[in-house]
Amino acid sequence: xxxxxxxxxxxxxxxxxxxxxxxxxxxxxxxxxxxxxxxxxxxxxxxxxxxxxxxxxxxxxxxxxxxxxxxxxxxxxxxxxxxxxxxxxxxxxxxxxxxxxxxxxxxxxxxxxxxxxxxxxxxxxxxxxxxxxxxxxxxxxxxxxxxxxxxxxxxxxxxxxxxxxxxxxxxxxxxxxxxxxxxxxxxxxxxxxxxxxxxxxxxxxxxxxxxxxxxxxxxxxxxxxxxxxxxxxxxxxxxxxxxxxxxxxxxxxxxxxxxxxxxxxxxxxxxxxxxxxxxxxxxxxxxxxxxxxxxxxxxxxxxxxxxxxxxxxxxxxxxxxxxxxxxxxxxxxxxxxxxxxxxxxxxxxxxxxxxxxxxxxxxxxxxxxxxxxxxxxxxxxxxxxxxxxxxxxxxxxxxxxxxxxxxxxxxxxxxxxxxxxxxxxxx
Length: 427
Known about the structure:
Layout: H1 4-47, H2 50-61, H3 64-77, H4 80-99, H5 104-132, H6 139-168, H7 170-190, H8 202-207, H9 216-223, H10 225-231, H11 234-264, H12 268-292, H13 298-318, H14 322-350, H15 356-381, H16 387-410
Helix pairs in contact: 1-2, 1-5, 1-6, 1-7, 2-5, 3-5, 3-15, 4-5, 4-7, 5-15, 6-7, 6-12, 6-14, 10-15, 11-12, 11-13, 11-14, 11-15, 11-16, 12-14, 13-14, 13-16
């Protein structure tokens, strides 16, 4: 009993540290969603063109293609808490610049600057989860807590932003977003005793080190090494392949939903909103369930989550009425929440912690590269094939992703070798 009490206290102290971290970074994610709506609205008001909205969002998300990899490399080379603090302070400066109401050319600089700061911080945030939770068995719960908060704010942020924008204008939204960045930076400063602000242990620094005097090509290869890391292990390779298929299918379905609402059910924009809300509801409900009942075998639940998405899309393809189609999207949203959780846990348990930053940087890059083609394909196919057939095609693509996830991640052949002591995904 005397031996167990200190261990219990240490475990509770680590959960308290993780709670402070999660509160800070999730508060920032709420601000990100609020700012997204405000940026799009400002561009539309100033230009009067819908194209400007698309350009503004492209400027915000395009940096992920490059800087998520850079952020992942930095997260494995330097202090992860300090990297998040610096990137969030940079994000606060960018949105405060937007709050001043600068001319459009200046906004064209500030918006991608904001996107760059976010892209750099996200791999470090995901990598830091495994550093803070008490032990390997807690990885699933720790990720479930983060995912629930993220999905809740993802759902609520646009509504909060819309109300604030209507009442007090864009500047208020941007100032509040800056405050959320500062809250996150402050929370990460508080956890410094548990997650030191010094550079990582020598093993971590060496894993991502570039010798002095190296050529630009060698430095670029180091920054892009997350792709090699993800491709070098059977399980993470399966995640990389399946996430591309999932994001392409999801983007295609998102582009097709307006056609489902109008052409199939004649429900117009109200029907489109109902369908979109179904996905958000599924994400929320599943995230809440996973918060209290996290599954143990995440390798298999990755394939099962994608299978739920395939089933949901198949329901949409054959639904006789709008509410059944919306129910199918609730199912797909639940599957999306499950596969998101499984992706994070499998990466954290499979790879050494010294590689987590670069692995997550590569994962986010894969997702970003697949998202844009998916959206374009979804909109283009509306004019080429029947909407139900397009939805069925998304379900088939999801089924292919299930097969990949099952063979490469869930099968006994995908068993991971034990990581080196002190470097593994769990404690």
